[in-house]
């Protein structure tokens, strides 16, 4: 059964801080040996996160690539894309999209990151209800500092 973790950022958080927190989660996932898939709303959002992963912390290296439907050449890599994750990357999905992952019942762990924007909070509440109606295990973490 899928486990969903909601990370609620501080009330003063911005979209940029949401992306920075996402980079930190990706780095933590990578360092623990989990090669997650980051689901975005669009190819543009995927590219933005791709660029940020190169610059968010000096000296940090996280192997990653944009996913466009072609199998990656390397197995142990973080994938970022706006389409469903390929097999092998469904263990951990960081969801930056405004929708639930299409086959969310097949994902072992879903990480949702909510900033303080009204649109983001409304979409997050809708996803929460969908996961709840599906009977998934959920946890909420209030983040005090990014």
Description:
By secondary structure, the protein is of the alpha/beta class. The chain has a single domain (3-142), classed as DNA polymerase III subunit chi (Rossmann fold). It contains 3 helices and 7 strands, in the order βαβαββββαβ. It has helices at 15-31, 43-55, 118-133; strands spanning 3-8, 37-39, 64-66, 78-81, 92-95, 109-114, 137-142. Strands 3-4-2-5-6-1-7 form a 7-stranded parallel beta sheet, sandwiched between helices. The protein is globular and about 35 Å long.
Mean pLDDT: 90
> What is the CATH class name?
Alpha Beta
What is the tally of helical segments? Answer: 3
Instruction: Give the total of domains.
Output: 1
**CATH architecture group name:** 3-Layer(aba) Sandwich
The profile of the biggest β sheet is:
7 strands, parallel
Order of helices and strands: EHEHEEEEHE
Radius of gyration: 14 Å
The CATH topology annotation reads as Rossmann fold
Helix content bin:
25-40%
Gist of the model:
The chain has 3 helices and 7 strands. It is of the alpha/beta class and 146 residues long.
List the main descriptive attributes of the protein structure presented here.
3 helices; single chain; Rossmann fold; alpha/beta; 7-stranded parallel sheet; 146 residues
How are the secondary structure elements laid out?
Elements: E1 3-8, H1 15-31, E2 37-39, H2 43-55, E3 64-66, E4 78-81, E5 92-95, E6 109-114, H3 118-133, E7 137-142
Parallel strand pairs: 1-6, 1-7, 2-4, 2-5, 3-4, 5-6
């Amino acid at each position: 059964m899928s486990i969903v973790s909601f990370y609620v950022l501080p009330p003063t958080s911005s979209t940029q801080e949401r992306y920075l927190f996402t980079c930190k989660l990706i780095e933590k996932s990578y360092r623990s040996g989990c090669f997650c898939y980051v689901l975005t709303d669009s190819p543009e959002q995927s590219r933005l996160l791709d660029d940020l992963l190169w610059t968010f912390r000096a000296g940090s290296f996280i192997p990653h690539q944009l996913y466009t439907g072609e199998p990656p050449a390397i197995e142990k890599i973080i994938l970022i894309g706006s389409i469903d994750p390929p097999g092998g990357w469904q263990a951990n999905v960081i969801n930056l999209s405004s929708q639930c992952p299409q086959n969310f019942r097949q994902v072992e762990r879903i990480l949702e990151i909510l900033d303080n924007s009204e649109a983001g909070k409304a979409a997050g509440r809708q996803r929460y209800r969908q996961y709840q109606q599906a009977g998934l295990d959920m946890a909420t973490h209030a983040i005090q500092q990014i």
